[in-house]
Amino acid sequence: MSYASFAVIGFGLVVLGAGLGIGMIGGKALEGIARQPEQVGNLRSVGILFAALIEGLAFVAVIIGFVIANKG
Amino acid sequence: MAEEKETPKAHEGADGAAHEGGGHSDPMHHIKDRVIVGLNQDGVAVWNPDTHPYHEVHDLEGEIAKLKAKAEKLGKDEVVEKQGIEAEIKVLEGQIATIKHEHGYYEAKTVGGILKIEFTQHMLNVTVAALLVGVMVMAVARHVLARIKTDQAPKGPLANAIEGLLQYVRDDLIIPIGGHHLIPYTPLFMTYFFFIFTCNMLGLIPFFGTGTGNIGVTAALGGSIFVLMTGLGMIYQGPISYWLHLVPSGIPFLIQILLFPIELLGSVIKCGVLCMRLFSNMIGGHLVISNLLSLGVLGKFATLTPPVLAAGMLAIGLPLALGISLLEVLVCFVQAYVFMLLSIIFVGGALHADH
Questions:
Q1: Contact A55 B276 (CB under 8 A)
Q2: Distance in angstroms (rounded) separating the CA atoms of residues B292 and B289
Q3: What interface predicted TM-score (ipTM) does this complex get?
Q4: What is the dotted CATH code of the domain comprising A4-71?
Q5: At a CB cut-off of 8 Å and minimum separation 6, what does B233 contact?
Q6: Nearest chain B Cα to A72, which residue?
């Protein structure tokens, strides 16, 4: 029996963590905008930047999982 | 992806193919690299070579190797089985010979056994992107210099946009993060940004590959950032002092020794993650788009005639793919910007680590 299906569950967990992280960033950004509406530009840029950094990890996990699911 | 595992004969006839190529039934076909012109083993240049026979031969050679390994493991007295395995090997070698003597078998000529002499779709994309960026920036620079001579401000949206971006990068990114020593390297980081942005955006054109969707291209970009980081660090801090100052000071000596390999590995991994982030974002986006486009033609639908297949693809897949492509525009820009920002942070950190 191939263990590729178990490995792919692990990669899914990475994406779960990334989703949680980006959700937290979004929540804090919204709070910041609600407090100081004039800082919308700053908050938007910083939020998208950190979301892209976390998403990098998630995408790496997805691609490697894809490769392993095809080979295993 | 189950269609990929079928026997090589499966790509005759319509078995789930929605493309007019007639046999490529996997969604990765338009994302993988494709050879445009290559040098054959006997020195003849071949346009649009068919690389399927080469892959079949490769698979058959793999099977021969497996059978040989099995034959090695057999004992001395199992002669009958050994003869059976040798007969199978002969059959496979016969198949390889027939494939190789077919008209137009293509196997690339290699330099040193590793580098194939061929020009592929991704190479074309990278060349086009580089030419585009070069021509545009040089035209704008000429225009700006000509206007500066007569003491006027540059006119036109492109020149002003590039100047605005340059000012933002220099004043808000490079000087706060890297310090004044990094200002001469501003054009380098702008080049990275424009090149990656153009490469990414060109990938949104249908039937035109993504340059940065090739792991070789992104690994080269990440590796160049690594060379820049260590090179500039060694120039500004001294060759030995740079490596010694990788670990932060002010912590006990034993922990510093423990931390040193981690920091060393960390600086390599930082650039590696830069590479993987860019590659995965591009490949992920295009995979999603190609899978959505083929949504209307899976299963029983696939045995119908091509016009019906095309209609199904357009009706169901096209609106979804259009929506994802619009998101991809944002992802292209954000990934180029993140690459530039992180490389500024890494190189700036390497310049003055001892504060």
A1: no
A2: 5
A3: 0.81
A4: 1.20.20.10
A5: B242, B350, B351, B353
A6: B5
